[in-house]
Amino acid sequence: MAKNLVIVESPAKAKTIEKILGKDFEVKSCFGHIRDLEKDDMGIDISNNFKPKYTIPDDKEKVVKELKKLAKDTDEVWLATDEDREGEAISWHLCEVLGLDPEVTKRIVFHEITKPAIEKAVQQPRLLNMNLVNAQQARRILDRIVGFELSPVLWRKMSMSNSLSAGRVQSVAVRLIVEREREINTFSAVSSFKVEAFFTAKDIQGKNITFKAEGPTRFKTAEDAEKFLEQCIGAAYTVRDIQVKPGKKSPAAPFTTSTLQQEASRKLGYSVSKTMLLAQKLYESGKITYMRTDSVNLSDTAIADIQKAIHTNYGERYHQHRKFKNKNESAQEAHEAIRPTYMENASVDDSDTKKLYELIWKRTIASQMSDAELEKTIAKITISTNKEDLTASGEVLKFDGFLKVYMEGRDDEDVNDEEEEDDGSLPPLQVKQQLDLKEMKATERFTRPAPRYTEASLVKKLEELGIGRPSTYAPTITTVQKRGYVEKRDKEGVKRDFRILSLKADKITKQTESENTGAEKSKLFPTDLGIIVTDFLNQYFSSVMDYGFTAKIEEEFDEVAHGKKIWNKMLNEFYTPFHKDVENTLENAERVKGERQLGIDAETGKPIVARMGRYGPMIQIGKAEDEEKPKFAKLKATQSIETITLAEAMELFRLPRNLGKFEGEDVVVNIGRFGPYAAHDKKFYSLKKEMDPYTVELDEIAPLIVEKRAAKDERTIKIFEKEKIQILKGPYGPYIKQGLRNYKIPKEKIDTAADITLEEAKAIIEDVKANPPKKKAPPRKKKAE
């Protein structure tokens, strides 16, 4: 038995640290949280100063038992959980469960898993910081209160389902997405005409090249644009003025949690949760510093290491010492930005984490590199016939500096029409030089609404508003999608005509062209359920949904962490008015129907409404109390209760569609609980993703039926038709299926699955029902609110 027991959160981290510390230390993992609030009665004694009631989950009993034994048999226990508030809370829970005295138990922290950092931490241990523990405890308790008290309100007042939930940060995040969607839905595009003139002039080699100059203004109407072009007929174009301005670009700060999530999304297409999973892997293997931080600071050692890497790889001219300051004054949890632990390693061998590591390396090294030096030329060109100026601009990179390594990406909302095309270089021009006009165009352009959020731009917005902290972004975005309030999907563009007026050889021509507009990829869309829940919470719990209030709560957690505020006093200030709102809403609020009246059915005179049903948004013709049952149709995935028109709603009642006969039996397509399907010969076949049940034809469905039937035959070992029991082949071996449920076949019968009798199959089913398999322990719990 080693003299020292070190407890960390992750088994991967444990292996790495044990190699560094040597034989006198045994490093074990507690696999994340070992205690959580009880489920019963919220797990909080509100009347007793919000005293939490903790329990050890079943899947952690074995881990705790082993740690207790090891702690009892060792000379000294060291707590080395992560250095943020949640890590501090886990260390406190370990003290409580293992019977360790927090007044003497050694607590060590480090933000990189390297030999110097670990050895330094062991030489300079500290004690548990109860302010950090209480800040985390306050967050956990407050979020439990909000979830446990708000969710039943939703169940009582909304008729959709009992799986509804609300959360302090998740509900505000959904509100942002809902408000953006409504901005887009109410947006009305306005057109204007942008004038661009194309000239020819000789470059330094004497070759004629074409360059562009922009008009003096945008014209509101085609008539105004045409009038301007008419004024330019027969004009001479002269360079009136040339200005050459030096400029520079500076690199971005090294990564914080949120900027890493944003940039990995823009450059690598990673979801926020994937980025954090890969970053965790890099940290635990000692490749990068701690990945949950809102600090842009770099240590002096790191800066010296980066300087050496720049001198070696690019030369002394490319180095520029920089100190970045945090915008967020509370940024203190990890004390340093995310960076590689050793800058000489420009890459890693692991294929999963390679791209993310290289992104971190480039961002880090670029942050200490020289500015890029530019030269911007702006030429003013006079039109002789109306004395207006055209403006041509070009940019030349004189010294690449940090751009040699890295350029920060941008989100859709940060790019405007003027910046869509990069400035090219201009040919050498001189004042009073006459220019030859090749063509002048006035092109119709349309204003655009604010783009929908991506996961990354939502993180950016939450951070700007002060909502949440580094550990909360990924689980918040995952939760709102799992709850069915938000979905990430693509949107196809629509064709739109635009007009072009052209002046060429003193003649004006007009033409109409079309463009694809509004296409979006991997954007966050609110579902109808998300919209209805948001509206309800906005109406009755305005403070919880208020951005400023939510940010203020985060600041109060920070005050608790700094010892400036007592945690249960802070909770009481929140709970008293909140609980009154809950009681008032339960007593006085009307049930939410989530309905929108669309009109009256011309055939029956019955009302047509779009509403939420048990299985999602739908259209209903008629009322439940009518003698004749109402008709129902499910909305398409791209349709919404808020925006569907009466015509679009009636189109949905074209289903079911009979496509004709195949092998002597009718083929009928429809949409069911699990999506679009084709029914044939009393069997059902799910349609492929690209198949639209409203337009698909028999010649497309017939091969699908044959293909799926063959695949099913290959999987089928045996069928007991009357009892609807099947023995099937699966990817992990044979299994029994009855209805929608699957049952594992005992090991001793796997090789003879084809010989299983009906009685044996029934016995296996009953045995599994009576002794359900124990759920596997979930993977280490990620940082959450």
Automatic annotation (TrEMBL):
InterPro entries recorded: Topo_IA (IPR000380), Topo_IA_2 (IPR003601), Topo_IA_AS (IPR023406), Topo_IA_cen (IPR013497), Topo_IA_cen_sub1 (IPR013824), Topo_IA_cen_sub2 (IPR013825), Topo_IA_cen_sub3 (IPR013826), Topo_IA_core_domain (IPR023405)
Record Pfam families: Topoisom_bac (PF01131), Toprim (PF01751), Toprim_C_rpt (PF13368)
Keywords linked to the UniProt accession: DNA-binding, Isomerase, Magnesium, Metal-binding, Topoisomerase
Marked site (Interaction with DNA) residue numbers: H33, R139, R140, D143, W155, R292, R483
Superkingdom per UniProt: Bacteria
Keyword 4Fe-4S: no
Keyword Metal-binding: yes
GO molecular function, one term: DNA binding
BP GO terms, sorted: DNA topological change
NCBIfam families: topA_bact
Self-association state and partner proteins as the record states: Monomer.
Similarity section: Belongs to the type IA topoisomerase family.
Protein name: DNA topoisomerase 1
Organism field: Chitinophaga tropicalis
Gene: topA
